[in-house]
Amino acid sequence: MKTIILLLSFFATSAVFAQQTQSITINSGGIDRDFFLYVPDIYDANTPAPLVFCFHGYGSSASVNLAYTGFRGIADTAGFILIHPQGTLDATNTPHWNVGWGLSTVDDVGFTQDMIDYVDANYNLNTERIYSTGMSNGGFMSYVLACELSNEIAAIASVTGSMSPPTANSCSPTHPTPVLQIHGTNDPTVPYEGAIFSENIDDVMAYWVDYNNCNPTPSQTPIPDINTGDGTTVDHFVFDGGTNGANVELFKVYNGEHDWPGAFGNYDINSNVEIWKFFSRYDINGTLSVSDNKEQVNYSLSPNPVQDILTINRSFGTTSKYEIFTLEGKKVLSGQLKGLTQKLDINALPRGAYLFVSGISSKKFMVQ
Q: Are residues 309 and 278 part of one domain?
């Protein structure tokens, strides 16, 4: 059992989340390590909860990453526990994750294990549903965990990250691992085509397609270009048929740069929503059965665009929670869905694009 050094005061970036977001320090590898822990209001100590890690980019911080990725709003409806860890300083005094670059010797895999142990000791953790994602260097870190902490990690997602050559050369996962990649074709920081410090994204996909025994020929679905002003479009590639249902997926953002789609750059997808939709289908043994995954809510929105009354048509009538967010992640409406059809008065919403979230499903709609 790892020694808990300090439980700091609640992190108060947003009054809405102030009571649940804790700043915690533990001792890991002989040094003090920090992370933010978010436990949603719907957490039930009698029900094992999934855990999602979100790692920040090189030179960034856990607090900045927590603010723009928007996972707290998803956790509020899906019920997972969320951790945003803080990297240590490298030789240039830059916050980082040790993914095989430079001379870093910090044990970030051990730190991740210690954070898992902390959650397991203090909450009812579903140890078969632990996931990792991150931006840039945090995406690289997620691949490291898929390779080196495979016994704990059920699935990963990388946004603008890749596998470093050391990670690719030594990767030894212990189970088929679902992988989701979100990457821009014009990324100047982590080039899509690869660099001396990063693997080509198509090669990364090919590695996991081969390891998971997926169909090497993906399906390709264009994402509706809802925001025509961002200068980008997205195609969704799915390599299916993996062992135990472990698929490999890619959101390829044409003309996209080093961005977190939904927060900046491309606005046709929301990275946090797509990542959780992907994670929620899996545990460490593979695809969850329909009976195990109760978070999926199937519905349609009409009309879209809408002026005053938004109609939600559902495939079943059980009560479920909904939330409406701006594309910047601000929650503007919430409530309960009941019955097969429900009408919402959205006259108070300013013109623009919004995200409707219920369970793990999300739909974008425009208010005219």
A: no
